[in-house]
Amino acid sequence: IKNTVAQQVIFLGSGAHNTLIIYDIPGAKVGTFSSWTVLVESNDFIAENIAFANNASNYDDRVAGQSVALDIRGDKATLRWCSVYGAQDTLYTGLDRVYFYQSYINGSADSIFGHGS
Questions:
Q1: Is 56 strand, coil or helix?
Q2: Looking at 24, 75, 96, 110, which residue is catalytic?
Q3: What is the dihedral sign for C-alpha 115, 1, 88, 112?
Q4: % helix / strand / coil in the chain, to the nearest 5?
Q5: Using an 8 Å Cβ cutoff, are 13 and 48 in contact?
Q6: Residue 81 three-state SS
Q7: Is 0.90 topped by the overall pTM?
Q8: 91-92 and 10-12 as β-strands: parallel, antiparallel, unpaired?
Q9: Which is the catalytic residue, given 24, 75, 89, 96?
């Protein structure tokens, strides 16, 4: 969804091992805040049973630099039963609140970053 105004955005998958959104753009090429696989700019975003990944340079942060898989810039985002994979700077929490329930975040350095709580 791009350039769309929505009250709430919801991504529902059929399990984090079955539903994967993946891209391979390295932050070393485009900069950290343009290297995301998925960018969320909506409040109250919900993701359930889905995985997000940025596999730039095979998850090697020494080559790819920052490789953001999920960039959340809205308040009160919720991830339930989700997985997030990347190299350095895997998940950006922005400045607002992000809730995690039985979710898995994996990165090689600074997996979760941002000022969110």
A1: helix
A2: 110
A3: positive
A4: 15, 35, 50
A5: yes
A6: coil
A7: no
A8: unpaired
A9: 89
Tokens at residue 26, please?
A: 């390295």
Is the C-alpha dihedral spanning 71, 22, 24, 110 positive or negative? positive
Q: Is 71 an active-site residue? A: no
Instruction: State how far the Cα of 117 lies from the Cα of 97, in Å rounded to an integer.
Output: 5
Q: What is the pLDDT along the chain (117 residues), one digit of tens a residue?
A: 555 566 789 999 999 999 999 998 877 788 888 889 999 999 999 999 999 999 887 766 676 678 899 999 999 999 999 999 988 889 999 889 999 999 999 988 778 888 875
Contact, 60 vs 41, CB < 8 A?
Answer: no
Query: Would you call 96 a catalytic residue per the annotation?
Result: no
Residues in Cβ contact with 80 at an 8 Å cutoff, skipping those fewer than 6 apart? 46, 47, 48, 49, 101, 102, 103
